[in-house]
Amino acid sequence: MSGKATRQAFGESLAKLGETHREIVVLDADLAKSTKSELFAKKFPERFFEMGIAEANMIGAASGLAFAGKLPFLCSFGCFLTGRYDTIRLSVAYSQANVRLVGTHAGVGIGDDGHSQMGLEDVTLMRALPTMGVFQPMDARETELVMDYLVKEWKGPAYLRLTRQNLPDLYPQGAVFRPGKLMSIRQIDSSRTQVALIGTGAGTAEAMKAAQLLSERGIEAQVWNAHSLKPFDEEGIRQMAPGLKLIATVEDHSVIGGLGSCVAEALSQLPQHPPLVKFGVQDLFGQSGEGEELFELYGLSGRKVAEGVERALKSSH
Amino acid sequence: MNQKSLASLIADLRVSIIEMLHEAKSGHPGGSLSAIDLIASLWFQEMRGVESASQLAQERDHFVLSKGHAVPALYAVLAEKGFLPKDELKNLRRTGSRLQGHPDRVRMPIVEASTGSLGQGLSVALGMAMGLKLDGKKSRVFCLMGDGETQEGQIWEAAMAAPKFGLSNLCAIIDANNGQIDGPVSQVMPIEPIADKWRAFGWHVLDIDGHDLGQIQAAYAEARTRAEAGSTQPVLIVARTVKGKGVSFMENQIGWHGVAPKADEAKRAIEEIRNGNGGNSK
Fold this sequence. Notes:
The complex is a heterodimer of chains A (317) and B (282).
Chain A: E1 4-5, H1 6-20, E2 24-28, H2 32-35, H3 38-43, E3 48-50, H4 55-67, E4 71-77, H5 78-82, H6 85-94, E5 100-104, H7 122-127, E6 133-135, H8 140-152, E7 158-161, E8 166-167, E9 183-186, E10 195-199, H9 202-216, E11 221-225, E12 228-230, H10 234-240, E13 246-254, H11 259-267, E14 276-281, H12 291-297, H13 302-315
Parallel strand pairs in A: 2-3, 2-4, 4-5, 5-7, 6-7, 10-11, 10-13, 13-14
Antiparallel strand pairs in A: 1-8, 6-12, 9-11
Helix pairs in contact in A: 1-8, 4-6, 9-13, 10-11
Chain B: H1 3-24, H2 29-46, E1 62-65, H3 71-81, H4 121-134, E2 141-146, H5 153-164, E3 170-176, E4 179-180, E5 183-184, H6 185-188, H7 194-200, E6 204-209, H8 213-228, E7 235-240, H9 263-275
Parallel strand pairs in B: 1-2, 2-3, 3-7, 6-7
Antiparallel strand pairs in B: 4-5
Helix pairs in contact in B: 1-2, 1-3, 1-9, 2-3, 2-8, 4-5
């Protein structure tokens, strides 16, 4: 696959922002090579803290650094970070600490390492915390834009979810980044549109593939990307819904509490709305395998999404 | 402030704790009374830049109460120093009050860290000390923990990290009252030899009587002197205390961990504090 892993784009962006934003400090828990925080560490060793394999202390220390006026980015695999939930809840979220939690190795897409290394419930956990923002870019360019936003504008705690694997470049050339808003990345004349596919992170590329496959079979689908799961663009969903036969979400995350839930929560406020199909990990744990094979197995590859959408359209007739 | 006037002031603070808890009808007398000598000595003798609320310095020392349930002791001190109107103490634990049952830094920034889920405050204090050191500031950070609290794994993650970063600007204190909800610490989950454990982790450890104002002041002074002399070691003070100190029927009684005194009990407690020496053993 062409393109870049969003963790790589994050590491490059962080090292660049570190030049102009001296308040940035970075903490890692023995995974700096994997999270790509090492790019910052090499450039600004005095502002990088290796905290060892001790995530809870890293999280609390990041809050302390924030209280001392710093802007800490703390990095680990998403599952390891969000597993220290009580510390995030009290020392970060309740305290409104200006901390950026960066969870890489999102979803089954990481492949070989398997169940214990895959963040699959991290979005659910972070969304449930008051004051916490939750962001997940779809490609390298969007990662840079989200990073810019998190450094220059966002106040309070935020969780940034990133992939291990490369993702194709999807960000439309010259498009204006609107923080918190859904972005259309495949526009179809509304009179011909039957379906809206909404993706986030690695799911967006699969939604694009699905739209292509569906188009070959005479079904036209818009594709939208959600870089922000909290705040979530509920208004965007309400505007998109009328006239559609189906909405489908695609995410490499549990369908309980992730993007699918965000969309369901928005749709449920409408008196009438199209049915929603949630592609993602269906209340299951991960396992070892090739990332692309796991996308097939868990039903979130472009092909599986296209098949599922076609099936859902037929059954709704 | 000299020891004699501090001792008399602390007696007032003990009374204030009893009154607050009685008014709120809930809270934690045992751990508040065991910690008050340690907290008051810090705020009235040791900490720099917090001489009074109106003179709060930009560069000042910081205090994190990791054993958040002892916050009535901190509120009593803050009210005495003018950070809160004394009148407001009666609002402890009331709906809408900033005097939350456990410290809340958003509602009341002077408490520095939101705590109450045990084991977290030392990490926050560590981060503050790292930030201050990075900026080359002379300010120091104090963190008060419970002895039972050190059963939390996160404490030991922080204990491992502080010497690595050479944080002589960090001074941790353990209020070792040997009491926790389910019984004596020595039975629930033994932590001894606690001083040796922290020494082995690379801390400079002092073991003192946590109700002897002279020993407390000397220990804080030693931590400061070491920091000023360029030590790279964080300091831990193990302060041996008595749960419920100053009120005979509360002393060493686990039952008084988290129960507020009723009217007659509060009256007896206050009389004892007034007639006694305020709880200080020396």
